[in-house]
């Protein structure tokens, strides 16, 4: 692979500008390789975030040529535009710490707001719960359980951009997996938490979260499941 | 919120049926030409017509303000009590104007 790759990278916070670098093209080069090369060889003040480099931690997510992605799992050859250029921005819908690093506090606070944590109840069970793998609940939980909290769905979501109260796809997906956890004892309060002004009903089913999730999770279907669960609760007079 | 969401979905179902009936009726009724006087002659004293369009109006009055509330929330900074009151007033206006028109057609 020969030639140079033109890379426009966002520098600054909410205010800032794109800075252009020219990086040698290399075989099987990932976008994260490019950012790392720029930081090590061209400008040590460039801020970005990564850890595992193999698609396990999710911390290297950025917007690459307009689409949110894990940069470690994205080869330059897959995404460079017709002119062979890359345009790298921090994830959308997050406050920017600096350059490509974003502030994720609000994102994880919304997981808490959505009761995205296991509720064991006041008295612990005496024995292990038997959860057969073939049950409907276990399979529904399995479908969304591999979320690693990278924020790609949150960046892709139009509703998050429009409504600051919206809990977002990841938090609602987590609430759905827990709603299907037969051991959990906090379901009523969880359904209340996801029915508020920024809850699951605010979803417009644009499916951007599902399209861009690097784990191939479908938060849209999790959100639809929450809507159904709330409807069932109302019809049964429980809500 | 769930109540508003469900009310909007339920009225969407009513409206989908009502709009279909409304359009098909118009197309069928005017295929050979129809004057205002002939329309009023058909609607006058027609209890079925009145009930159908009263339901139509009420469904609109529930459906539209909830949708507008979402639009205002997503596209402007307007939210809270003043927005709710404004949209409640809009709902009442839709009911009043709509039922007035339906009643006028029934009694004309």
Topology:
The complex is a heterodimer of chains A (239) and B (108).
Chain A: E1 4-12, E2 16-24, H1 31-42, E3 61-64, E4 67-70, H2 76-79, E5 85-89, E6 95-98, E7 101-103, H3 105-113, H4 136-144, H5 152-156, H6 158-162, H7 169-179, H8 187-193, H9 208-212, H10 219-235
Parallel strand pairs in A: 1-5
Antiparallel strand pairs in A: 1-2, 3-4, 3-5, 6-7
Helix pairs in contact in A: 3-7, 4-7, 7-10
Chain B: H1 2-29, H2 36-43, H3 47-75, H4 81-107
Helix pairs in contact in B: 1-3, 3-4
Structure description:
The complex is a heterodimer of chains A (239) and B (108). The mean pLDDT of chain A is 95. Chain A has a five-stranded mixed beta sheet with strand order 2-1-5-3-4. Chain A folds into two domains: 4-102, Beta-grasp domain (Ubiquitin-like (UB roll), Roll); 104-235, Fumarate Reductase Iron-sulfur Protein, Chain B, domain 2 (Orthogonal Bundle), CATH 1.10.1060.10. Chain A is 35% helix and 16% strand. In chain A, α3 packs parallel to α7 and α7 (169-179) packs across α10 (219-235). Chain A is of the alpha+beta class and 239 residues long. Chain A contains ten helices and seven strands. Chain B is mainly α and 108 residues long. Chain B has a single domain (2-107), classed as 3 helical TM bundles of succinate and fumarate reductases, CATH 1.20.1300. Chain B is built from four helices and no strands. Chain B has helices spanning 2-29, 36-43, 47-75, 81-107. In chain B, α1 (2-29) crosses α3. The longest helix of chain B is centred in the middle third of the chain and has 29 residues, at 47-75. Chain B is elongated and about 50 Å long. Classes of the chains: A alpha+beta (239), B mainly alpha (108). The interface between A and B is medium-sized, with 14 and 10 residues.
């Amino acid at each position: 692979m020969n030639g140079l790759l033109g890379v426009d990278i966002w520098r600054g916070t909410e205010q800032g500008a794109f800075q252009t670098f020219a990086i040698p093209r290399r075989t099987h080069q990932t976008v994260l390789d490019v950012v790392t090369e720029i930081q090590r060889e061209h400008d040590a003040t460039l801020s970005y975030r990564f850890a595992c480099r193999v698609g396990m931690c999710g911390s290297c997510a950025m917007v690459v040529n307009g689409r949110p992605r894990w940069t470690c799992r994205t080869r330059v050859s897959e995404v460079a535009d017709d002119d062979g250029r890359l345009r790298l921005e921090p994830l959308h819908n997050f406050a920017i710490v600096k350059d490509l690093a974003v502030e994720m506090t609000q994102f994880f606070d919304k997981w808490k707001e959505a009761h995205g944590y296991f509720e064991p109840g006041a008295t612990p069970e005496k024995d292990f719960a038997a959860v057969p793998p073939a049950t409907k609940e276990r399979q529904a939980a399995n479908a969304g359980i591999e979320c690693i909290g990278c924020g790609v769905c949150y960046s892709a979501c139009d509703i998050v951009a429009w409504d600051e109260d919206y809990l977002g796809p990841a938090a609602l997906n987590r609430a759905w997996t827990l709603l299907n956890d037969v051991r959990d004892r906090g379901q009523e309060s969880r359904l209340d938490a996801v029915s508020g002004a920024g809850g699951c009903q605010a979803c417009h089913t644009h499916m951007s979260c599902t399209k861009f999730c690097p784990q191939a999770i479908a938060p849209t279907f999790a959100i639809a499941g929450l809507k159904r669960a709330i409807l069932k609760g109302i019809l049964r007079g429980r809500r | 919120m769930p109540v508003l969401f469900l009310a909007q979905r339920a009225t969407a179902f009513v409206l989908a049926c009502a709009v279909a009936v409304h359009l098909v009726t118009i197309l069928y009724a005017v295929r050979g030409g129809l004057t205002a006087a002939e329309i009023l002659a058909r609607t006058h004293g027609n209890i079925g017509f009145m009930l159908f369009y009263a339901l139509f109006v009420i469904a609109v009055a529930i459906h539209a303000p909830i949708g507008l509330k979402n639009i205002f929330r997503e596209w402007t900074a307007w939210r809270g009590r003043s927005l709710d009151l404004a949209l409640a007033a809009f709902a009442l206006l839709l009911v009043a104007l709509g039922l007035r028109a339906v009643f006028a057609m029934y009694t004309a």
